[in-house]
From TrEMBL:
Keywords: Decarboxylase, Lyase, Pyridoxal phosphate
Any one cellular-component term (Gene Ontology): cytoplasm
GO BP term, pick one: carboxylic acid metabolic process
Pfam family, any one: Pyridoxal_deC
Residues where N6-(pyridoxal phosphate)lysine is found: K199
Name of the protein: Tyrosine decarboxylase
Cofactor(s) needed for function: pyridoxal 5'-phosphate
Length: 392
């Protein structure tokens, strides 16, 4: 077993005076300090409940300010790359269907949310008498791992009193490595932040971790008055956090135990090694793609995902046939029984293959082998194209 993480060695069981140290719930050894991401408290729940609960907290806070009857005026914001979990949460929270602004992103911005576009959208809503409520920004979007510029976005939302949530479901795990913390530049200004330890931090499904700046907003929205059954002396004295008041569920699974075991088994160094090895393998794959001029890397690789495609070739119909060509390639790659399994992204009208390194057992030679399969299938497809186009 690897030596315990440094962050565990310093665990004191204390959470700091005003919750300055995020804690991972209650564990067999009192509480643990964790990576100091946000000046905020933390708890965990399943999947995208994090988004829903914070949205409800933000909604109630705003309605307390502007009046309950104005729920129909609330508007929420995201990008066209935001996970559909957000749209779903907005519906459940009672936001009008046409008040969810999915702001268009473009290739030039690497599909990140543009602060200028956000500013324009918010201003238009304010001018129309509507009330901006919530922004869901993403670090590591699902399709291409785009990184929204949190600091700049917060500068746009601040004058409107908008709650900013950061969804770092996948890429949040990379933040155990200091070299990745630049991706959350400006995060001090956000209201809440969530990541899924079950995606890339070796915890099994489900284990979503959330930091929230003002838990009181959650308690105001989700806390119960009639807590006589569950109250005990400790919670009266506020020594115990009553997570049932932060969340939708009352009785909950002991998810912190999984996280605790992962931290104990791997330690901070082990977790960093794990993330870095995946990033290194993705970089190796990226280099191989770049070295073959038939291919292009479509979006910048930031974490362990490489989005690539066969370049459109004029002699085969150019951009018009590029998507079909790449769709065909993906099908062929996945049909190779002993080969890799890859998925696709369709962003900005471009179909691309996704090589995601994220499995615990993946080793360098697998990545090399995967690339050989892609090259081999590409050669076959391009040969077919030559024949089809030469007979025209
Ligand atoms: C996977 C993912 C989600 C959804 O997470 P669940 O655990 O399935 O709720 C949300 N956002 C992003 C960016 C994701 O990658």
């Amino acid at each position: 077993m690897a030596p315990p993480a440094q962050c565990l060695d310093t665990a004191t069981g204390a959470t700091g005076q005003n919750g300055t140290v995020p804690v991972i719930g209650h564990t067999p050894e009192k509480k643990m300090q964790c990576h100091n991401l946000l000046d905020a408290d933390e708890f965990r729940l399943q999947g995208h409940q994090a988004i829903l609960c914070t949205l409800v907290a933000a909604r109630d806070r705003k309605l307390a300010e502007i009046g309950e009857n104005r729920i129909c005026d609330l508007v929420v914001y995201c990008s066209d790359q935001t996970h559909f979990a957000f749209r779903k949460a907005a519906r459940i929270a009672g936001i009008q269907r046409d008040h969810c602004r999915a702001i268009h992103t473009c290739h030039g911005d690497m599909f990140a949310l543009s602060p200028t576009e956000l500013q324009a959208a918010m201003q238009a809503d304010v001018d129309a008498g509507l009330v901006p409520l919530f922004l869901c920004a993403t670090i590591g979007t699902t399709q291409t791992t785009a990184v929204d510029p949190i600091g700049e976005l917060c500068a746009v939302t601040a004058p409107h009193g908008v709650w900013v949530h950061v969804d770092a479901a996948y890429a949040g795990s990379a933040l155990v490595c200091p070299e990745f913390t630049y991706v959350i530049h400006g995060v001090e200004a956000v209201d809440s932040f969530s990541m899924n330890a079950h995606k890339w931090l070796l915890a099994n499904n489900d284990c979503c971790v959330m930091w929230v700046k003002k838990p009181s907003a959650l308690v105001a929205a989700l806390g119960t008055e009639q807590e006589y059954i569950l109250k005990d002396a400790a919670s009266e004295g506020h020594d115990v956090v009553d997570y049932k008041d932060w969340n939708m569920t009352l009785t909950r699974r002991f998810r912190a135990l999984k996280m605790w075991l992962v931290l104990r088994c791997y330690g901070i160094q082990g977790l960093r090694d794990h993330i870095r090895s995946h990033v290194r393998m993705a970089m190796a794959f990226e280099e191989m793609v770049r070295a073959d001029e038939r291919f292009e890397v479509v979006t910048d690789r930031t974490f362990a995902l490489v989005c690539f495609r066969l370049r459109p070739q004029d002699k085969f119909g150019g951009e018009k046939t590029a998507n079909d060509l790449n769709r065909g390639l993906l099908e062929e790659v996945n049909a190779v029984t002993s080969g890799p399994y890859m998925s696709a992204a369709n962003v900005g009208g471009m179909f691309m293959l996704r090589c995601a390194v994220g499995s615990t057992l993946t080793e360098e030679h697998h990545v090399g082998d995967a690339w050989k399969v892609v090259q081999d299938r590409a050669s076959a497809i391009l040969r077919k194209m030559e024949i089809i186009y030469s007979s025209r």
